[in-house]
Amino acid sequence: MADDHHGPTVRIYLAVFASLMFLTALTVWVAFQDLGMFNDVVALGIACTKATIVILFFMHVKYASRLTWLLAGAGILFLLILFAFAMADYVSRGWLGMPASHYLQ
Amino acid sequence: MAITEQDVQASEDAPSVNYLNNGYGLKSWLLTRDHKRIAVLYIISISIFFALGGLFASLVRFELMTPEGDLMSSDTYNKVFSMHGIIMVFFFLVPSIPATLGNFLVPIMVGAKDLAFPRINLLSWYVYVVAGILGTIAVVGGGVDTGWTFYTPYSSTYSNSNVILAAMAAFMAGFSSILTGLNFVVTIHTMRAPGMTWFRLPLFVWSHYATSIIMLLGTPVIAITLVLLMLERGFGFGFFDPNLGGDPVLFQHLFWFYSHPAVYIMILPSMGVMSEMVAAVARKRVFGYEFVAFSSVAIAILGFLVWGHHMFVSSQSTYAGMVFSVITFLVAVPSAIKVFNWTATLYKGSIVYDTQMFYVYGYLGLFLVGGLTGLFLSSMGLDIHLHDTYFVVAHFHYIMVGGQVMGYLGGMHFWWPKITGKMYPDIWGRVSALLVFLGFNLTFFPQFILGYMGMPRRYHVYPDEFQVLNVASSLGASILALGYVIPGAYLTWSIFKGPKAPDNPWGAKGLEWETTSPPPTFNFEETPLVTEEAYQYGPIEEH
Amino acid sequence: MADHAVHHDHPHGLAHQFEDMPQQKESAIIGMWSFLITEILFFGGFFATYLIYRSYYPEAFFEGSSHLDISLGAFNTAVLIISSLTMAMAVHKSHEGNKKGIMVYLILTGILGLTFLVVKYFEYSAKIEYGLVPGLVWHPHGENSPQLALFYSLYFGMTGMHALHMIIGIGLLIWLFIKTAQGTYTAEYNAPVEIFGLYWHFVDIVWIFLFPLLYLLGTQGGGH
Amino acid sequence: MQTDFPLFPDQASSFAFQVDALYFGILALCVFFALLVVILVVIFAIKYQRKSDDEVPRQIAGHLGLEIFWTAIPAVLALGVFVWATVLYFHLITPPPNAMEMYVVGKQWMWKLQHPEGKKEINELHVPLGESVRLTMTSEDVLHSFYIPAFRVKKDVVPGRYTNLWFKATQVGSYHLFCAEFCGTEHSRMIGTVHVLEPQNYEAWLTGGTANEPMEVAGERLFEQYACHTCHKADGAGRGPSLVGLFGKTVALEGGGTALVDEAYIRESLLNPSAKVMAGYKPIMPTFKGQISEEGIIQIIAYIKSLKAPELTRME
Q1: Number of structural domains found in chain C
Q2: Are residues A57 and A18 in the same domain?
């Protein structure tokens, strides 16, 4: 049974908070730098990092049972399945070079 | 109300206190947190919707006896088949076994006093009822004519019917099934009795675990899809209408992300029922227990990767279609594993010819046809011809009615003595099982032929050459209806006049047969200690 | 949510269906995570829609995004992160059974949540004023108009759904506050505070993704 | 079977036979497995009927070899069927290069069909025997699905997009044309007839009807009516690119990237001109959205297709 009285300390919470604020500032700053298509990559990368930090520390997953890892992982895995399989259709529509695959408007 | 009369009856016959007689009056039922009483509430409300959906089905079959639209207008016909689909899918098939038998049996089978969250369980029933009322308002207030699939842009822009209300009803019914699934997942994880390891769980519990995974992961996507649909229809937010910049095919992706796995919500619980009944009928451990258990989980997970097979002719990319097609073929494998293992369970068994046996055999026959015809539809080259024809209609009715409804009725007969504490006349059970089997085949087998000949689904009028087979189908439907009415009659009779049921009338294995019939409020006098494998009718021989 | 029926032979806060407190607490946490999975997929439908249309109409999405106020968005991001910290502290205090500590941090969390909603209200008002609400008040008439409307449909859909979660969260927070004031939560029985914390952090995470996707992509004005 | 009670559809296209072969192939597989299981369970029911109420049979836990056997066999068979069906699918969706072009517009609740020579039909389609026909289809309102059971072809007709379908009729006769995707009240009356005629009869039918102008002529008239020719000059000296010989080419775009000039590209350029501007030109073209009907757009496309580059004509 998960008894998480040994969760993170206040010191860790403050460190997590500081890094989240720093990453927020960073993502705004990066947005104004012209990195071409990498603007999106960096912005999403920072968002994923922030989310991971929140999940691990604020939501105690780092200290939780394997089952919690499994549940959180399952949610993210099926989210990726939804993205990947739906995008697969849209990305590959053009591959046969037929008008059917083109979107019109 | 039937409930309170049932109460009184139970109190006269049963000497001990059980879940039925430990409180009287409407309030003790409507505010109950006992999973068994909530299951009974679900049985009553689901039966009402099954009857309503069946009524719409008979109207459809009546109309299709002639090629012309002479019984009702096209508009009415479209509303009738749409309401048939919406009610049967969202208000009967999805909750049918999980919310009734699952609700009643999962805690007992794992040896718990109740589900983990009894209040949430009651909440799920209320959400279901509110959804049902919304759905009924949608019907009474003019109906909805989009089909249960709500395809855009017809549903979002062109239809003049109560789309928003119906979508809202489906949304809420989905919410109710999320709450049920959540309760099952937590209960199975944390509340197993001492000694009840994962591989001692009855296969019924495994299949409900797999079903709950789908409910948790799939249902929210249909919920958001319906929200987007309502926003588009209500406010003119563009998501799926090409005139507003959207893509109608995206709706289909999001819709089938849930609605294909939902087919497994509808069939997996009945597979669990089958495993229990096969073991009891043959008085034998289910052959290849681990394979049957894992095949449920495999079906649940693979089921999320195949939704695009509903879209082979929708202008979806050919390459995406190929991926969806090949995974669809792979889903056939775990289903085949189950069928072979059930067959092997019967080998050298001790087979009794009671009502359960009739349902087991009927289920096997119908599920075989339903499952195998899925191969035709997952073949891209053939699906071009078969898509949206009566072949598809026949296929999914074999799965959902031949599979799930046979499982539901069979399970009801199997556990009826446990739920009510009363026995029903076995001969009538066998007669009705036979009627359902024959009526079902006569109704839906002709539709395979109709489909290959090219009759599209959702047709109000049709060319003359399709009439003979349509008449045959309608005749079968009347036999099928009879097969559904008879159990309703003798099961109700048994509540009042049936002989009292012993604790274990079938000599079956499982924790639910070790407690009294009906069980006490907290299921067991004391927490059971599990020391043996599931279905251990005798010493188990390994091969 | 756990059942609060009090039994005399049971520890305080233990519901009848559970054997002991750890089992009850584990059930509550797993139950909340199961619910959060459904929430991930619920917002996931929105994000998938966003992803697909974004990849089809990058210009319209850049244009739509450039009308949003980055400073307000960044401010709200900071507000939510601070509220996550105070929520985490409330959970921390609940482990100690520190009633006063829980109450202080819950109030702070609530105030920050309300701040977020107030800022959101001003942002929405500005959009209504400029006629950027598809279907209701829509002023743009350029060739990109439908695609721009698509961006704003997603903007209002996603932030609206997020705001709805915030409102529900604040409602639950008030209920928790009352329960805490009544002395319901102790060092042994604090699962409701803990699982509410999970919910609150999840809502924060959704915003962590909404902020760059909706606000920040307009800065490069068609960077591709 | 006689025609008043048929149990099988006509085989009237070049791939009807192949689709039916796949159908019967899978059917044989299904019948084999269904019979196998049914015969086994019936034998078991008879042979192992419960003799006495306290009978307990031997408990067999399972057999790993058997499990692997009946996992592998269905998996291999299923993958075999997948390959067969997918190869057939690619054949069914890939039109031969010399196919005749016809156009379909679906709307609630009728099919509007147009021949390349300009002849228009409603809910009827005349096609020549033995000639490959490629349909380019779109919808004015909701989803429809173009379905000819006797040809074993079907494809959804999607608003805002062109979809394609092709067939080669192999048997003279009249066949059903259905709408297979639910499209509203009169869905089941959105049906028509496909007439397959001998080629000479088809020619006679084409010329015998009312004098419709060919599609490219109508397109040319629209081209002038909307003053397209003032910018898109044939010699390339206008403010827009010359359209001569442009169809089917891949062009560079302003701001990078390329685009294939096909039906969809032309339609997009008419409705949303600034989306993909050819390299070297300014985004000055106005949108024609709401001004030209879907049929008009198809006619302009036909006209642009007919503008062949001179050397190409010589090569042919």
Answers
A1: 1
A2: yes
Is residue C96, in this structure, part of any structural domain at all?
yes
Reply yes or no on whether the pLDDT at A4 is more than 70.
no
Give the residue numbers spanning the domain of C161: 21-217
As to burial, measured by CB atoms within 10 angstroms (0-12 exposed, 13-18 middle, 19+ buried), residue B445 is middle
Same domain for D190 and D284? no
Torsion of CA B243, B246, B248, B252, to 10 degrees: -160
**What ipTM does this complex have?**
0.88
Which residue in B248, B296, B290 sits closest to B542, CA to CA? B290
> Band of the pLDDT at A1, cuts 50, 70, 90?
very low
The C-alpha of B351 sits at a distance from chain D's nearest C-alpha, in angstroms, of: 5
Q: Are D137 and D156 within one domain?
A: yes
Closest-CA residue of D relative to C222 is D255
Alpha carbon distance D23, A55 (integer Å): 52
Q: Dihedral of the CA atoms B420, B426, B427, B431 (nearest 10)?
A: 70
A86 and B253 in contact by Cβ < 8 A?
Answer: yes
Same-domain status, D34 and D168: yes
pLDDT of residue B229: 93
Count structural domains, chain D.
2
Q: Are residues D247 and D283 in the same domain?
A: yes
For D145, residues 6+ apart whose C-beta sits below 8 A from its C-beta are B313, B387, B388, D154, D155, D156, D157, D179, D180, D181
pLDDT (tens digit per residue) in C99-108? 999 999 999 9
Mean pLDDT rounded to a whole number for chain B? 91
Q: For residue C107, is it within any domain?
A: yes
Cross-chain Cβ contact C134/B235 below 8 Å: yes
In this structure, chain B runs to a length of 543
Residues A73 and A50 in one domain: no
Low pLDDT (below 70) residues in chain B: 1-15, 542-543
Residue type, B223: A
Interface probe with D: pick from C56, C143, C145, C147, most Cβ of D within 10 Å: C143
Task: Please write the tens of the pLDDT for every residue from B376-393.
Answer: 999 999 999 999 999 999
Subunits next to C (3 or more Cβ pairs <8 Å) are: A, B, D
Question: Per residue in A16-51, pLDDT tens?
Answer: 999 999 999 999 998 888 887 788 888 899 999 999
| Residue C178 CB coordination number (10 Å) | 10
Q: B59: part of which helix (H) or strand (E)?
A: helix B35-63
CATH number of the domain enclosing D193: 2.60.40.420
Last residue of a domain, one of D158, D191, D211: D211
- Please give the Cα distance from D51 to B352 (Å, whole number): 9
Distance between CA B298 and CA D226 in Å, rounded? 60
Tell me the β-bridge partners of C13: none
Asked, for residue C77, whether it belongs to a domain, the answer is yes
Phi, psi (rounded to 5 degrees) for D179: -95, 120
pLDDT digits (tens, 9 = 90+) for B316-372: 888 899 999 999 999 999 999 999 999 999 999 999 999 999 999 999 999 999 999
* Count of domains forming chain A: 2
Torsional class of C104: left (φ above 0), alpha (ψ -120 to 50), beta (otherwise): alpha
B540-541/D59-60 β-pairing: parallel
Among partner residues A100, A103, A105, which is closest to D164 by beta-carbon distance?
A: A100
> Are A25 and A58 in the same domain?
yes
Residue D250: give the domain boundaries.
215-315
- Domain extent at residue A92: 65-105
Contact B366, B404 (CB under 8 A): no
Q: Kindly list the structural domains of chain B, giving each domain's residue range(s) and its CATH number in brackets, ordered by start.
A: 32-513 (1.20.210.10)
Q: Are residues A9 and A51 in the same domain?
A: yes
Read off the CATH number of the domain in which C91 is found: 1.20.120.80
pLDDT at position B399: 93
Spell out, as residue ranges, where chain D has pLDDT lower than 70: 1-4, 208-212, 309-316
- Say if residue A38 is in the same domain as residue A74: no
